[in-house]
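Hi R.,

Here's the chain you asked about this morning:
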Amino acid sequence: MAEQASSASTSPKPKAEFDQFAAGYNAGMENVVKHLAASGADDFAEIRAEWLVNYVRATGDGGTSLLDFGCGSATLLKALWRASYPGTLSGCDVSHGMLEEARRTWTVGTLPRLSLQPHDRLPYPSECFDLAVASAVFHHIPPAERGRWYGELHRVLRPGGRCIIFEHNPWNPVTRWVVSHTPIDANAVLLSRREAGAALRHAGFETISASSLIFFPPRFKFVRPLERRLAWLPLGGQYVIVGRRPPT
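And here is the predicted structure, written out as tokens:
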């Protein structure tokens, strides 16, 4: 796999926050509530991957190229591979350590293209992806810097492409407790579904849908059909919001 790299620089690169968590990364599963709710981080990623695959099939966008922005150790990309995502997969992250962990632990098939991301832009040309996904990423970005990244996601999407944001729901008290008691979320600032939608519109997206996820512990897979019926209720542990780049 050829990694797309940023231009060489003689100055030292800033250390990414998540480099300290990269070795043996477990997505905060040491938190007692997360540990009780799921057998591992893969359970949470599986829910998002299933949602994405169902969304692509429902919209008729088979064969779409997907960018996982802030892919970390590629937990979501692995889940998408296992869910037979019908398109190409790529990921980027500011943490060199997390990308190395992704490569070390990838065992499910062909490794996607993984790119080290500079701290001020995405390492891709304009209009090169059909879907851009940010899975529990924006709450780790300082609020004053988020606008730039919504703009970058808009830039790398083709006209008509979709930006899909999965985030923790600050209206859910269990979610708030978990975030406040998990070391990887020490600097997190949660954002509401309304805030995410407004940011997408400000970046030039058309906000086309929003729904809720994870009303029940992910380990209880038999209740997932019921979860889909509750998607309209804005009280799930997480939410997903979709913005479309205008086709012209």
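One quick note: Confidence is low (pLDDT under 50) at residues 1-13.

Cheers,
M.
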